[in-house]
Amino acid sequence: MRKPTMIRCLFIGVALLFASLLTAEESMTYEAYELALKDATCREVAAKQAIAQEQTTLQDLKEQVVQTDKSIRAVHNEIPGLIGMTQEEITKNGEKEAALIAQAEALAQLPPEEIKKRSAEIQALEKALMAQQSQTSSLLFASSARLSEVEGLIRTAKENAEAAKRAPVVNTFSGSALSVSTYTVQDRPNNRECLWKIAGREEVFNDALQWPKLYQANKSRIDAAFEKYRADTNADKYSRPEDLIFPGQVFNIPR
Questions:
Q1: What gap in Å lies between CA 215 and CA 211, rounded to an integer?
Q2: Gap between the Cα atoms of 212 and 199, Å rounded
Q3: What stretch of H or E contains 146?
Q4: Torsion sign across C-alpha atoms 208, 210, 212, 213
Q5: For 76-119, what is each residue's pLDDT tens digit?
Q6: CB–CB of 249/225 below 8 Å?
């Protein structure tokens, strides 16, 4: 009878040990949960504080924008008095400047040959520009920008007129098979000439797509100049002879 009692005691001991382990595991899990909850609560509080701080900063910025806008409006309202003009006079000067821009743009967009005929108009425009520049309203940023634009457009028109004066005279002569003309390549650093541009000129073909025709008519001299350039410079920037022509070259224009 003693042996069963020992077995029973052993069984009870194992059961108690298992129960204690289970209780310990449940206790650790709860403690971990408490720690996680506490950490999440702290992070939530910190996030709310950060949001509140950002909202305060945003509100401050909005108020600064409002104050800056008021200051700009105040300065804008003071401008007429500072330059000794009424707002109506400033507006009228702005309209005159816009008209000068339109006139200068129209001139600058004309073909060089046409601009060359309008030197008197360019001079009148320059005189009108000087008159506007003498106005106190030209001290204003917007006015100064408009007048600078007019000045740049006049400069472009004059440069185009000068280019037309330097343009080669096309000499027509009779060849053995067909009538041809000649064109001398110009030195234009800011607007380098190419076969495409030459073919598009009114006195040549007036059609840039005709450039292969120009190349074929002058192939030997273009190819020779290209090979000499590559030999002298050892450069491979240009891979085709027709991509490189030089100021002073005289091309025959087949008709």
A1: 6
A2: 9
A3: helix 141-166
A4: negative
A5: 777 777 778 888 888 888 899 999 998 888 888 888 778 888 88
A6: yes
Whole-angstrom distance, CA of residue 103 vs CA of residue 157: 11
At 193, the amino acid letter reads E
Residue 3 burial class via C-beta count within 10 angstroms: exposed 0-12, middle 13-18, buried 19 and up:
exposed
pLDDT digits (tens, 9 = 90+) for 134-177: 888 888 888 888 888 888 888 888 887 777 666 554 444 333 33
Confidence of residue 10 (pLDDT cuts 50, 70, 90): low
Q: DSSP letter at 245?
A: -
Q: How far apart are CA 73 and CA 91, in angstroms?
A: 17
Taking residues 233-242, report their average pLDDT: 71
E strands present in 16-174: 173-174
Please give the Cα distance from 243 to 237 (Å, whole number): 10
- For 45-63, letters b (16+ CB in 10 Å) and e give eeeeeeeeeeeeeeeeeee
CA distance 207 to 196: 8
| Cα-only R_g, the chain | 43
The pTM (predicted TM-score) of the whole model is 0.41
Q: Say how many C-beta atoms besides its own lie within 10 A of residue 238's C-beta.
A: 13
